[in-house]
Amino acid sequence: MSLLLDTCALLWWLAGSQLSEEAAGRIADPGELVVVSAASIWEAAIKQALGKLTMPGPLAQVALEGGFEPLPITFEHAERAGSLPKHHRDPFDRMLVAQAQLEDLTIVTRDPSFAPYEVAILRC
Predict the structure, then answer these.
(1) Which stretches of the chain are assigned E, i.e. beta strand?
(2) Which residues contact 112 (CB under 8 A, 6 or more apart)?
(3) How wide is the angle at C-alpha 120 spanned by C-alphas 66 and 38, nearest 5°?
(4) CA angle 106, 124, 40 (to 5 degrees)
(5) What does the pLDDT look like over 45-55, one tens digit per residue?
(6) Disulfide engineering: 7 pairs with which of 40, 49, 50, 74, CB 3.0-4.6 Å?
(7) What is the CATH number of domain 2-123?
(8) Residue 6 — φ and ψ, nearest 5°?
């Protein structure tokens, strides 16, 4: 199953921060498809604009250079995100859940708020 990095997992990977052995191994595996949602790039850009995050360069470019595949937001993703149960209010995380469900992806995250949703999770 392919991986979808949540925003924090992406930032931690790029910063060389400690991830679980399993998550790091799967992300580094050249045979594993690892995608990054446009929602994560958007979320990080907002945090950067608010001064809550510092990046050495444009995150989209850094993610592509890191070998990650981009995952655009489609109409179907938007409809699914809007119709999800209200377990979690963060619109970016809700989009990741919708994308993971529709694209059969495993979300790489430490965030416990993904657990109530019907989605595969790899703890990082």
Answers:
(1) 2-5, 34-37, 69-71, 105-109, 120-123
(2) none
(3) 40
(4) 65
(5) 999 999 999 88
(6) 40
(7) 3.40.50.1010
(8) -75, 170
Structure tokens at 110: 């430490």
Q: Which amino acid is at 48?
A: Q
The residue assigned the tokens 């657990």 is 115
- Tokens standing for residue 15: 């910063």
Q: Read off the tokens for 62.
A: 């850094």
Specify the pTM.
Answer: 0.94
At position 43, the amino acid (one-letter code) is: E
Residues in the chain: 124
Place of tokens 């050249």: 30
**Residue boundaries of the structural domains of the chain:** 2-123
Distances (CA, A) of 95 to 13, 14, 22, 63, 106: 21, 22, 24, 19, 13
